[in-house]
Design brief:
Elements (H helix, E strand, L loop, with lengths): L57 H7 L3 E8 L3 H10 L2 H9 L10 E9 L5 E4 L1 H4 L4 E5 L5 E10 L4 E6 L8 E2 L10 E6 L7 E14 L2 E9 L11 E3 L4 E9 L10 E5 H14 L5 E2 L2 E5 L2 H6 L8 E6 L4 H5 L6 E5 L2 E2 L5 H7 L6 E8 L2 E8 L1 E2 L4 H5 L6 E3 L5 E5 L2 H7 L5 E6 L3 H5 L6 E5 L2 E2 L3 H9 L5 E9 L2 E9 L2
Parallel strand pairs: 7-12
Antiparallel strand pairs: 1-2, 1-4, 2-3, 3-6, 4-5, 5-6, 8-9, 8-11, 9-10, 10-13, 11-12, 12-13, 14-21, 15-16, 16-17, 17-18, 17-19, 19-20, 22-23, 23-24, 24-25, 25-26, 25-27, 27-28
Length: 489
């Protein structure tokens, strides 16, 4: 167990300064009257301050604190796992443990601590999935020190939420608020058990909303500067009205401890997950079946966009709803079901909230103009790989691109899940190298025209502009991605 170091901070003394007149008792002759200055033309500051003072959280903690619980779990070590570890040891160590040690030392059960909160008086408790994942025993401890065995009703790995049930009645419950109404800069408060310290309270402000994290495609996180540490996971995030607006879930840290970046799952999303877990024990999400990427300045220029925006479709999964709707690589999705798509990370969150089999409209930028499409949203497959999946030896010069390429074999196309393309054999000085093209990449399309073989590539290259930026679609290791090639530089 790592050592917890305590740091004492020097006190901050607030000194009030009073400005007073410095005249003596002797009467002074009044100066001649000066002409009045003209009134300033600039706007005067408002007499009402934007910030009126620091909040007092004491009443909130007293009222809502009893509904916050500690969650402890036990995961039993499987004897077969221990035997498997024994078999993986070198023979010398196996003989040593058998002859002198009586076998490998028995491994202790894995124990963990987290937080949660009661959402109904009949015993439903909400927490993070990673707090209770793979646990054999789950115990919920209330503030009055009662300990209740909990049953896992259901869990959702995608949103990192788990719903528990304890056998009890007349339990204290939290007030559920709306994360949609939360504003950046608003005060929020967390209650949990960091490092096992029960009922610890920390406060801060909302730093941002709708944050995307690399490991989570479907959660628009609330970012705060509330101090969150191991043991806070699954605990509630309150607004000043005493309403739960989020569930503390993740931190970003180089040390493993709090560094000012904490992330909470929005409560509006969490309650939708809760209802589905109650009804079916699992969560269904919408699925489109595209692999998308961010549009940067160069790609925006190559696709004729006024500014970087939208989600650029790099790959369409065969047999997916996107394929049936006619979406194709190179489309830039700018609107989906009435929601503006500013960044590629916006799209999965919007699609995931739509019920499967729903028909929705979307708008894409294609060939420099807007195009409206309709798609019937599917259900997100349980296998993440399915959800994300989205020749000859003759070589040829890519000319102005700075590439040497060859026809792709059937095996190479199959591994890359590509219908056609040419393999990059060598990258020379030129636009392709500057854009990051590598040996082994499969060039699938150039300037929005499919590259079927060497002959089609030659024809496309002949018609490229001398100067400007054109998009190229490359497939690397089975993942398709657009890059922008700057010509004539």
């Amino acid at each position: 167990m790592g050592m917890i170091q305590h740091y004492l901070l020097p006190p901050l003394l607030a000194v009030g300064l009073v400005v007073a007149g410095c005249g003596g008792s002797e009467q002074q002759e009044a100066p001649p009257e000066q002409p009045k200055a003209a009134a300033p033309t600039q706007a005067q500051p408002s007499s009402r301050p934007l910030v009126t003072g620091l909040p007092d959280f004491t009443a909130l903690v007293e009222k809502e604190g009893p509904a916050v619980v500690n969650i402890s779990t036990v995961t039993h070590r499987d004897a077969s796992d221990q035997q498997q570890q024994m078999e993986q040891l070198p023979e010398f160590f196996r003989r040593f443990f058998d002859e002198f040690g009586g076998g490998m030392p028995e491994q202790e059960d894995v124990r963990s601590l987290g937080s949660g909160f009661i959402i109904s008086s009949d015993g439903y408790v909400l927490t993070n999935n990673h707090v209770v994942a793979d646990a054999d025993e789950i115990v919920v401890r209330l503030q009055d020190r009662r300990e209740l065995d909990a049953e896992l009703v259901g869990a959702d790995e995608q949103s990192d939420l788990a719903l528990l049930k304890v056998e009890a009645s007349d339990l204290p419950v939290v007030n559920i608020g709306s994360s949609e109404d939360l504003r950046v800069g608003e005060w929020v408060l967390a209650i949990g058990a960091p490092f096992g310290f029960d009922s610890s309270v920390t406060a801060g402000i909302v730093s941002a909303k709708g944050r995307s994290l690399p490991s989570d495609n479907y959660v628009p996180f609330i970012q705060t500067d509330v101090a969150i540490n191991p043991g806070n996971s699954g605990g509630p995030l309150f607004n000043l009205n005493g309403e739960v607006v989020g569930i503390n879930s993740q931190i970003i840290s180089r040390s493993g401890g709090y560094m000012g970046l904490s992330f909470a799952i929005p409560m509006d999303m969490a309650m939708d997950v809760v209802e589905q877990l109650k009804d079916t024990g699992k969560v269904s999400r919408g699925w489109l079946g595209v692999l998308v990427q961010e549009v940067d300045r160069d790609l925006a220029e190559s696709f004729g966009l006024e500014r970087p925006m939208g989600a650029l479709v790099a790959q369409v999964v065969d047999g997916s709803p996107a394929a049936a709707a006619g979406l194709r690589p190179g489309d830039v999705i700018i609107e989906f079901d009435g929601h503006q798509i500013e960044r590629s990370g916006d799209l999965p969150k919007v699609v995931g909230t739509i019920k499967p089999d729903s028909e929705v409209d979307l708008t894409v930028m294609r060939d420099g103009g807007e195009k409206d499409l309709s798609v019937t949203v599917g259900q997100l497959p349980e296998d993440p790989r399915q959800a994300a999946a989205g020749g000859g030896s003759e070589s040829a010069q890519g000319g102005v691109l700075g590439l040497q390429v060859r026809d792709a074999s059937a095996a190479e196309l199959a591994r890359a899940k590509a219908e056609s393309g040419v393999v990059v054999a060598k990258v020379e000085e030129g636009p392709a190298r500057a854009a990051g093209v590598r040996n082994g990449d499969i060039l699938v399309s150039l300037n929005n025209q499919p590259v079927k073989d060497l002959d089609t590539l030659r024809e496309i290259v002949k018609n490229l502009p001398e100067k400007g930026t054109v998009p190229a679609l490359v497939n690397r290791g089975g993942n398709a991605r657009f890059i922008a090639l700057k010509l004539g530089q």
